[in-house]
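If I may wish for something, please sit down with the protein I am sending here and say whether tokens and residues agree:
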Amino acid sequence: MSDGRAAKRVAKFIKPLRVKPGSTVDLTEDFDPRYKADLKKRDGVELLSTGVSLLADLQARLAAQDTYGVLFCLQAIDAGGKDGTIRHVMSGVNPQGVRVSGFKVPSAEELDHDYLWRYAQRLPSRGEIGIFNRSHYEEVLVVRVHPENLDRQKLPEEAKGPDVWQRRYREINDWERYLTDNGIKVVKVFLNLSKEEQRLRFLKRIDRPEKNWKFSAADVREREHWDDYQEAFSEMLSATSTPWAPWYVVPADRKWFARICAAAVLAHTLIGIDPQYPSLDGQAREELLAARGGLEAEAP
């Protein structure tokens, strides 16, 4: 398949997943966690393999060009499949060109800075793909559902008013625009898991000893806030899907399909950059040819 045909196929595939900038999202009404685009799982294996190969080629060119970086933000509720998605989608790329950062409870040092500070420390460099396993969007999700976390951030009282979430949406949008203007492309994937599928995955983590480490009682306590999270997700998607940093809502009930979608979204971003291997100028090419001649002369 030609590059042009591949680009069109990828764009068509992910179009239903994209949150149109300026739209109002109701996550429970607008996106089906079990959507699979009429694909069968056996076809998904080949599609994912094709996507991983495409990503490997694009990532190699991105690194060689050394002009753009890519920030890939991955958000989901507990058991949404973030770790597995990263592992499968990035399985074919050069590990030197990818950096994965996870964000858990902020440290004392991080709480002594503004809320975006710790995320700025882990941004990708030019030529690199940076993956945020959870991201700066935690600051308008878990912090919103658990407002006691806002108190821990040591903000002045005037910064904790009723407009705090709208202000943070604006600040995040501005920050992402700044990154994009400076050559760091931002793309965001939300893994949309149903409540029933989360229940089944939790049970599997409890029943299978090799998965016990993935589960804690806190996961069940967070599940009690399901409706609050759905509301926070919906408002986040509505307020922060922009032309320069769009959100894609990926159906996550079928892990195999979620991985295909995530690979397609990342590939679409890289195709848009269209990175190229650097071309040598005249002098550099002459030096290359001279080096080749010297190596050939050494032949026995």
About this structure: Residues 51 and 133 are 20 Å apart (CA to CA). The longest strand covers residues 184-192. The two ends are 43 Å apart (CA to CA). The longest helix spans residues 41-65.
